[in-house]
Amino acid sequence: MTFQKSESAGYLTNHMARLFANGLQRRIQPLGLAPAQFMTLLELWDEDGLTQKQLLERLDVEQATMANTLRRMERDGWIVRRPHPDDGRAHQAWLTPKARAVRDAATDAADAQNGVALTDLSDEERATFLDLMRRVIHAMQVWEGKEAR
Amino acid sequence: MTFQKSESAGYLTNHMARLFANGLQRRIQPLGLAPAQFMTLLELWDEDGLTQKQLLERLDVEQATMANTLRRMERDGWIVRRPHPDDGRAHQAWLTPKARAVRDAATDAADAQNGVALTDLSDEERATFLDLMRRVIHAMQVWEGKEAR
DNA sequence: GTTTTTTACATAGCACGCTATATTAACAAG
DNA sequence: CTTGTTAATATAGCGTGCTATGTAAAAAAC
Hints:
The structure is a homodimer.
Chain A: H1 9-28, H2 35-46, E1 50-51, H3 52-59, H4 63-75, E2 79-84, E3 87-95, H5 97-101, H6 103-117, H7 123-147
The structure holds a DNA duplex.
GO molecular function (chains A, B): DNA binding; DNA-binding transcription factor activity
GO biological process, one term (chains A, B): response to stress
Protein name (chains A, B): MarR family transcriptional regulator
């Protein structure tokens, strides 16, 4: 009858996410980079000049969260924000040379942390794990969508 | 070569954890309860009168994190803190009647959120998922331990 | 063409995680 | 018994997430 935390997907997910974040943070902190900034850079490395709106859609965070992350990233010299040429409300985020320079080191750090986390899993188990996570994410997103009506 | 976020266990974990936290938050907010407070109550429902040190060990959070959570929980009337009878440095956290009263509603909310998240998984897949998460958590904890030396 | 609504962004305020540091009590050494 | 160290808690400061609200530009309605 007692709620067993070790049987709760949410509890385990929370714990796992904190361990991931701590490990990543430790690895990228020497670069002067923070986890959410790294996550945002992943998108900009893939496509530069995105607007705040585009970024928050791709990363699935709230608008205010992205606004704050972008402000810190501009402060720390990872991006510059310039007004959008066709839309007076929007701003585009552009990578600085410093941000392009740190790409390899940062993705290596993330790869290393993933490697540590998955050490005890076989290749097949790793694939299963990613698949299950994607399906769980999808289920919650769908449900959120339903809730919105 | 490009870092693929949908292939990164850490990225997916972070996303999944945010969805879990948002869902749980929405469900327990009517009770006046926040996620970390719920997590802490899980321990105290199981064993009342724990010290801050015992709680942070069981929940694997930093001491300062637990100190702040306990302060908010006392402020919100979930616990009272009294000096430990045998150790002048320590305090014990004791549940209020209000905290005992909310137990069923809160665990039901957590169960419901887990249910939504796992809708698309079979019983066997759910078991596999929990098992994989436990092993990933374990791997990162072991590695952290090694790092500490 | 003016008015209304929607959209993009900013800001305030809070929870919760972290590191780093201070404080005080307990314990160990001498 | 005094001194030095360890252990339990508190506090400051910050990043990242959230909700709620404000503002200005764009788009839609009329």
